[in-house]
Amino acid sequence: MKIKTLFFGVARDIVGKDELLIDVQGNTTIQDFEARLLNQYPDFSDIRNFAFAVNESYVDRNYSIQKNDLIAVLPPVSGG
Amino acid sequence: MNDRISIKISVEPLNIQTCFDFVRDDSCGGIALFVGTVRNHTAEKDVKQLDFSTYEPMAVKEMEIIADHAIQRYPIKRIAIHHAKGLLKIGDLPVIIAVSSAHREAAFEACQFAINRLKQTVPIWKKEFFSDGEVWVNAHP
């Protein structure tokens, strides 16, 4: 399944795009997804400090990606 | 949206009076106001300007969650949380939080709770521009 993935802040700089369609197998967790991003883009060396959102809410690394999910890769926030 | 909560992310300059007017109420004896301002230095380097980017739909949701929690946790009447996006210069206002309550303690505490939580959970990212380059704040904590 093709999963739309959004990138923000330094993550956008690393990928060079705001969003990608990433092909994902069934039973892929956020942890698997994170490992794959790191493998594909080694500049994500501190991705363990990043958060992931699915459909605009934070999820933990155990979350299993579902069809039609919208993933967001969120570096440590710095608002305020 | 709950009529006790005002949430906004804006490319226009934030307005303190708007936040104050939203929260003021005849039943309230006090209003706490936190105003963030762009500082001219960080780690001894001169900051020229900041650029705030946001995952806006999620940021609005997270700000609503913070406001809901503040209302559940503290006896407050109303809360406004407004954040700027885009380019800001020294002295501009990235964030305003206003809280009204019958007695001052709740307003102070809820205001501090809201700004602390905002800095932890709301997906907004600040890029600092110096004379010799630019950096995402917190990108490499």
Automatic annotation (TrEMBL), chain A:
| Keyword Transcription belongs to the record | no
Q: Mind listing the UniProt keywords for this protein, alphabetically?
A: Nucleotide-binding
One Pfam family of this chain: ThiS
Task: Name the family the entry cites.
Answer: Belongs to the MoaD family.
- Please report the name of this protein according to its UniProt entry: Molybdopterin synthase sulfur carrier subunit
Automatic annotation (TrEMBL), chain B:
Against InterPro entries, the record matches this protein to:
MoaE_sf (IPR036563), Mopterin_biosynth_MoaE (IPR003448)
**Pfam families membership:** MoaE
Q: What catalytic reaction does the record list?
A: 2 [molybdopterin-synthase sulfur-carrier protein]-C-terminal-Gly-aminoethanethioate + cyclic pyranopterin phosphate + H2O = molybdopterin + 2 [molybdopterin-synthase sulfur-carrier protein]-C-terminal Gly-Gly + 2 H(+)
Q: What is this protein called?
A: Molybdopterin synthase catalytic subunit
The alphabetized UniProt keywords are: Molybdenum cofactor biosynthesis
- Which SUPFAM superfamilies did the record assign? Molybdopterin synthase subunit MoaE
Return the EC number: 2.8.1.12
Q: Record's family? A: Belongs to the MoaE family.
Pathway per its UniProt entry is: Cofactor biosynthesis; molybdopterin biosynthesis
Assembly, per entry:
Heterotetramer of 2 MoaD subunits and 2 MoaE subunits. Also stable as homodimer. The enzyme changes between these two forms during catalysis.
**Source species, domain of life:** Bacteria
